[in-house]
Amino acid sequence: MLSPSADPARPRAVVLLSGGLDSTTVLAHTIDRGYAAYALTVRYGQRHAYEVEAATRIAARYRVEHRVVEVDLGTIGGSALTADIAVPKDRSPDDLSSGIPVTYVPARNTVLLAVALAWAEALGAADICIGVNAVDYSGYPDCRPEFIAAFERLANIATKAAVEGTTRVRIHAPLIDLTKREIVALGQSLGVDFALTTSCYDPNASGAACGRCDACQIRLKGFADAGVRDPVPYQHASLTPP
Amino acid sequence: MLSPSADPARPRAVVLLSGGLDSTTVLAHTIDRGYAAYALTVRYGQRHAYEVEAATRIAARYRVEHRVVEVDLGTIGGSALTADIAVPKDRSPDDLSSGIPVTYVPARNTVLLAVALAWAEALGAADICIGVNAVDYSGYPDCRPEFIAAFERLANIATKAAVEGTTRVRIHAPLIDLTKREIVALGQSLGVDFALTTSCYDPNASGAACGRCDACQIRLKGFADAGVRDPVPYQHASLTPP
After folding, report:
1. CB-CB neighbors (< 8 A) of A99 in chain B
2. Calpha distance B125→B122 (Å, rounded)
């Protein structure tokens, strides 16, 4: 059965899908806006495969074409998410909102958008969607609006379609100005099945979230603020709101 | 024995090294200018491994640190260099200088520079060197000076060091305004061992260049114009100048 989003009359959009709350909400939002979505997961040497598995489940649920492209940033190191550096836990709200943590992956969003641009160009898609967020965003430089704008400028110089004047590439970051509470509310309004998503930087062997890394803390606070129950399993049952 | 380029007092530079004539000349030029060079080969789903083998030989010759990062653009397709599309042969000089050929890899240099930026950031390097060329360049959009300038702007927004104001990233494209003749002459003046390099898009099983693809034609003309003998093996011995 063909997905409604595979309708050839719809404009194509490449959606970066990590398997997390934000990118899943962006996928639902992109389909809701009438695009034929093409989900792209870039496997950048993550230490655990849960993200890729979650992305695969989500793409299947939405019946969209899904590609997983390996980019072995683990060869390069420089981050707790790709190298053997401990993921910080139980950081205070002040720490969460100041500085750039060790979970920052060097140039990660530049790499993700570059691969998305490659697929968009091969597909003839003019639209690329990414779930970056500049509010509750862990302080990553490549989550800021000026980064998205600079990449869009680059994309319109870098591609064959740009040279030939046939396509104007647009980078969509629909969550960029939303709080985590607002993202949860948007996801809920779009019918996102949050149980399919994963956000934890350091889940245990059965995939349960640690509840203590920056990503878990920001996620838990977003659900709590939105008054929505987070359905994913946590290692400490007390963390799951009733 | 430590390479002279590993001297900790020298500024670090990431050099994109494909194993071709141009990137090898850039590596030699970068070391000659006093940088500690770090050679980066991005294996982007090429149909043959000769380029990676050549890059490995060249990095070993210059005794520089070398990383090969896999980026599976073959998953995405859209190019004769990554998908099952025939490499064009025996194109006329007019064809060579007009339009964008099927060997164009979507967003390739954006992907290469993104990975280079990631490694540069992990290394604390401010300089990234790439052997793009806008003269005898096969008409690729991402070989133009405006592309390099746009990527440099992006890089200075994308990274932790940029946010913290500690590093100004520079993208060096020292060959961008040179003809192939001038590149051969520069390589020769720097003592580049051209026999280590490979340019052909479609070598045979023993690695001999076809002599007929765009890359071979441009390379052969460059050597001929410079009056230098190209030492690499061609499938038809008559193509190797005496």
Report:
1. none
2. 8
